[in-house]
Amino acid sequence: MTGADGRNLEEVIVVGAGVAGLAAAVALSDAGYRVTVLERKPFVGGRASSYEHPALHETIDCQHVLLGCCTNLIDLLERVGAKDAVRWYETITFLEPGGRRSDITPSWLPAPLHASGSFLRAKMLDARDKVAIARGMADFLRGMPPDDSESVASWLKRSGQTERAIRHFWEPTLVVTLNDNFENCSLWYAAKVFRELFLKTSTGSRLGIPRIPLGELYGLAAQYLAAHGGAVHERSSVDGLVALGDGRWSVQSGQKSFVADAVVLAVSIDQVQKLVRMLPVVDGSNELQGSLVKYLLSPYITAHLWFEREVTDLHHAALLDTKYQWLFHKSRIRDWPASRGSYIELVIGGSRELLPASREELIELALDELSQFFPETQKVRLVKSGVLKEARATFSVVPGMDRDRPVARSSWPGLFLAGDWTATGWPATMEGAARSGYLAAEAVTGKDFLKADLEATGLMRVLR
Q1: CA dist 227 to 35, 46, 129, Å?
Q2: Is the pTM for the entire model greater than 0.85?
């Protein structure tokens, strides 16, 4: 086969079995290439993986969700036969302390009016808040910002958002996708996310939550590769990378050496820095190293609580006016029998100030805040609990960073880059990772894999 650069290509090594690496590998395999995936961990999925907690004897993960606008991630799951492993929800529930509930759900009205009825009825906002939010939405209806230089914090002030509109609407809808405070988030990406989720279509904001642990979900991609002639080697950390004189590449993993016509590096920023430091300096390579050191990383914290019995029948909810921002009732989502009790995961995004907190402090905070919404938790026995901290969970889409995000084709012939941190047009999400994998496969092969964003529907066809 002939690659995008005109060379004869048959074998490709993908370093990293996160979402980006798996997307690249599946696309390359579907195009007829022999693909070998090297993953340093004993499981696939990268930051969207799960593992058995040694003390709790439970499989835990940081909850990552899909949205209806995640066209490439949905395509990847469909390719590998994982479509039915996701449970879809039309309604997003917002909870205030004390239990007052507001549901945002689509109606028969055309986009962008499809959720206007439930928005106007939302008790979490008063009339002044809703006017401010409508004013902000009007900005996004007019189109995208000219560039990524303005922060969300600046825009919130400039557009006259009320304090409660920020706390009860913009924070729960944007922090969960951008994973940082608004000073560190570009307005361009906030507008991109908001338009795709809430304005362009009535299906973009559908919430997809895996019915199975993330390791099992992306394990289906590894099984797909094995069934189609590929191979996934776990516990295979890459120690060296050498460009051979004949245009091929040698990848060293422990005592083993793998040779291929092309290599896709689908690993974290620090691992890319380590590997490309071993390579000879070529035109553009210093620019890559210079851009990689500019990334700001943001953490993610989850508390995992197992109760003797159920404390709510909700499957998920945005929690307002508390440190923990989202609730996922995983036993409900996964259809556990009542006899297994209730498994709840609570999420804090962009949680730098809480990273130093101990496990005990984070569990105490979780129980205290959960009781503000569900007093029943004070009467139900907590069977076990755990905390998962991801100190380098995502990169922050800080204003002006777009010029530093590298494209898939590197300065070294035959070496390609994938990862949510590359130039995907999306923030650090599983959709961004899937897009990066497809873009890397396109750079290798010259074929088209990337799926377009959802087409605008309803009135948005005119407003775009």
Answers
A1: 12, 21, 54
A2: yes
